[in-house]
């Protein structure tokens, strides 16, 4: 039994090493959230087993839990670089299948159609607003900046304020609000499913997304001209790396010891 107990320990250490390696490799990924490996004890016993004689049979990976703590905020100066200074996720629409994705990576740009898109081409979602920038509904729509205003003046720039109102500027000096950034929150964000490119999808574990405007209720404000960096702490990850390595070595040593004991028993002479 000790062979399999230690073998499970080695597999668990390998899983932990993989998670740590993934964290370290994404230490420069904007909007990335680190994960940690959590383990649970395994015991086996029947109703007739003396509770003082129940022997543990190792450990298993209980979960790989995401940590959504706020990462460092880096100033960039670009109007379409957005950081959420608090809770919430940017809501985007996938460019490939139209699914709804959530992200903390606020590096947005304009595409040829006037849409505000992420680096993956996913379209940022906005609430509708009136001429004064007040939200008028909760139906989400793609962020799209008209190339010309009603007077025929050309588009020259865009600004986003701390409550998420996106305003387009035109050559005649006019500024027109086109929508307000829609943030999403979840009752259990650790239940979100990673899909790559610092994007997540909602699941049954995370619950339904609740949408709101930045700076209201539980939703964080927006900081334009800034990006949220990865929340990976390299020093902490290196300590975890050493711990996982020692764990792996200890379990390997336990297997080696069990092998020697078995060999000794086999070689006994009567």
UniProtKB/TrEMBL annotation:
Its main location: other. Residues 83-168 form the Flagellar hook protein FlgE/F/G-like D1 domain. Residues 224-268 form the Flagellar basal-body/hook protein C-terminal domain. The keyword rRNA-binding does not apply. Keywords: Bacterial flagellum, Cell projection, Cilium, Flagellum, Plasmid. Residues 3-33 form the Flagellar basal body rod protein N-terminal domain. It is found in: Bacterial flagellum basal body. Belongs to the flagella basal body rod proteins family. A flexible structure which links the flagellar filament to the drive apparatus in the basal body. NCBIfam families: FlgEFG_subfam. PANTHER family: FLAGELLAR HOOK PROTEIN FLGE, FLAGELLAR PROTEIN. This is Flagellar hook protein FlgE. It comes from Qipengyuania citrea. The lineage of its organism: Bacteria, Pseudomonadati, Pseudomonadota, Alphaproteobacteria, Sphingomonadales.
């Amino acid at each position: 039994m000790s062979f399999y107990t230690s073998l499970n320990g080695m597999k668990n250490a390998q899983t932990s090493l993989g998670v740590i390696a993934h964290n370290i490799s994404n230490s420069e990924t904007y909007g990335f959230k680190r994960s940690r490996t959590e383990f649970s004890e395994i015991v086996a016993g029947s109703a007739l087993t003396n509770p003082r004689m129940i022997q543990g049979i190792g450990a298993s990976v209980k979960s790989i839990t995401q940590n959504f703590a706020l990462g460092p905020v880096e100033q960039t100066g670009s109007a379409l670089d957005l950081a959420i200074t608090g809770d919430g996720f940017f809501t985007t629409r996938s460019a490939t299948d139209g699914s709804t994705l959530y992200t903390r990576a606020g590096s947005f740009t304009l595409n040829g159609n006037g849409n505000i898109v992420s680096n993956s081409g996913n379209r940022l979602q906005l609430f509708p607003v009136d001429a004064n920038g007040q939200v008028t509904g909760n139906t989400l729509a793609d962020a799209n900046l008209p190339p010309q205003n009603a007077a025929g003046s050309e588009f020259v720039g865009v600004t986003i304020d701390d409550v998420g109102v996106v305003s387009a500027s035109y050559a005649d000096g006019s500024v027109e609000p086109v929508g307000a950034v829609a943030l999403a929150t979840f009752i259990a964000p650790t239940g979100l499913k990673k899909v790559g490119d610092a994007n997540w999808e909602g699941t049954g574990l995370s619950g339904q997304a609740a949408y709101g405007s930045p700076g209201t209720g539980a939703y964080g404000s927006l900081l334009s001209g800034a990006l949220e960096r990865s929340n990976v702490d390299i020093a902490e990850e290196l300590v975890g790396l050493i711990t996982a390595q020692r764990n792996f070595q200890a379990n390997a040593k336990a297997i080696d010891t069990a092998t020697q004991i078995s060999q000794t028993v086999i070689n006994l002479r009567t």
